[in-house]
Amino acid sequence: MLIKIPAGKMVTLPPPSARFSLYPREEEEFSPKGTSCARPPTMKFNVTGHLGYEVDGPATIISSLHCLQTPGQEVTDESLLTSRPVDYHEMELGLGQNRFSRISVETTGPLSIDYSATVSMSVRRVPHDDLTNIIPGELSAEAIPYLFPSRYCESDMFRTEAARLFPPHDSPYQQVKAIVTWISQNITYVSGSTDEQSSASFVLAYRQGVCRDFAHLGIAFCRALTIPARYVTVYAYQLNPQDFHACFEAHIGGQWFIFDATGLAPLNGLIRIATGRDASDAAVASLFGAIQGTELSVSCECLEEQFHPITRDELHNTNEALILG
Under CATH, what is the fold of the domain 2-121? Predict the structure, then answer.
């Protein structure tokens, strides 16, 4: 779908199609065998993303600002505004059917892109005691790609270290929990300490990074232990300062459970933007041509009167795991 957006024109985007192939379809699929899990109440959020650029010639931006539509996350009242005339094309790409915008501009000067949406989402708390690991020979086809090494998660280089640091547990969930705890205790969050070329092996060597690095390291360790894991970008409520955020999901007992080794935002305040093998599948913006980024701002506001945060540490002290909408 190609749309020409005039300068300053706000375009109300059509409702995103629900893509369920990587997300459970039926109610019972949200619960591990032998457990029941009633559908939880939804929480409503308003999210915005602002990107600013200086254009010096013909250029293209491939951006991932749009929230995903999943069984646990409904996107409504969605719009996109540009400060100048552009050619706009929305696409669904990658393993996670992520929603990308291709925005092309021919003339020079400043350009801003503003996205906003209202999102209703829910999370599920399920007991993890009975979750069992699924051997590669029995994994679903959708989970298998998340076992392999990728650009930023060189899991084949982590096997010896992962086996040393994280010996087998009776519960694979406890093994992933041990990974998250180790990262939070041994990797220092330092803004600006890494860049778009930094991978999990770099972060392990230098012991510092930002949210995407914490996620990449968790993914690499999981895959090294034959636990499928995938990268998730989100809008994050109560993240301070506000920014795009990254975490990861591990595939345990046939379900994807959310983990955030940074512990910087409540797990039930994460609004899914994109899912992939690593950040290369879910970059907020990739630039082509004569263009440079100048501004970035994000907001995530809860529209409910009450919000009860579910934190990483709180969840670790229970026998429950969390499935993100």
Answer: Immunoglobulin-like (2.60.40)
